[in-house]
Specification:
Layout (H helix, E strand, L loop, with lengths): L1 H28 L4 H26 L5 H36 L8 E8 L6 E9 L2 E2 L5 H19 L5 E3 L17 E3 L25
Parallel strand pairs: 4-5
Antiparallel strand pairs: 1-2, 2-3
Length: 212
């Protein structure tokens, strides 16, 4: 009888011990699974790390007004140096383009093969043809003839050849005094009710005035 009683007491004691362990686990884990508890612990560690970083930033010394002024002065000095370099680069690029086009120099016609971007100093390949500062496509017929005469002289100078030049529509041109031809010039002019004739015309081409 005593043995039976002891067995019952032992069984009840084991049940109570199991319940106590379960309650202890619930209190410790908050009714979470082991995986959920591990995740909660990781988040807790991360929170502590972030709090430590925030506290470190709060305790960090901020730059003084003098330090800010020194930084600004240094930045301004660097900007000034960069501007000077860009300016020198633009001058160099412009001079290089000028020298490379020296052989293309004419009286009133200008030909540009390079264009410099002022903001960056970049050199771009272009082709610009102007007469007295005006684009070729905006010239009158007489201006185009005068410009063509200058180009013909340029081609003779570059090729080293001296060949005759034929000029048509001379009725549209008062004179060709913007150029001094180095060779023979044949000028065709339409005159109403006049028979075909050929005659020498010298006074028009005797002198080249200064460019306007």
């Amino acid at each position: 009888m005593q043995k039976i009683h002891n067995r019952i007491c032992k069984k009840q004691l084991d049940e109570l011990r199991g319940q106590m362990q379960s309650l202890t686990a619930d209190l410790e884990y908050g009714a979470l699974s082991q995986e959920e508890y591990d995740r909660m612990k990781e988040l807790g560690d991360e929170r502590q790390r972030l709090n430590a970083e925030i506290e470190a930033h709060r305790n960090a010394e901020l730059p003084t007004a003098k330090e800010f002024e020194e930084r600004i002065a240094k930045a301004q000095e660097e900007i000034s140096g960069l501007k000077n370099k860009v300016s020198c680069l633009l001058q160099y690029t412009a001079k290089r383009a000028e020298l490379s086009l020296a052989q293309l120099k004419m009286n009133r016609v200008t030909i540009s093969l390079f264009d410099v971007v002022k903001s960056t100093g970049e050199v771009k390949d272009v082709f610009k043809f102007e007469y007295n500062g005006r684009r070729y496509d905006r010239l009158s017929l007489s201006e185009k003839i005068r410009a063509g005469m200058e180009v013909s002289e340029l081609m003779k100078r570059l090729t080293g050849r001296n060949y005759p030049v034929f000029v048509d529509n001379m009725e549209s041109v008062d004179d060709l005094n913007n150029v001094r031809p180095t060779g023979q010039v044949l000028m065709a002019k339409c005159v109403s009710r006049t028979e075909l004739s050929v005659r020498a015309v010298k006074p028009i081409l005797t002198e080249l005035p200064s460019a306007a």
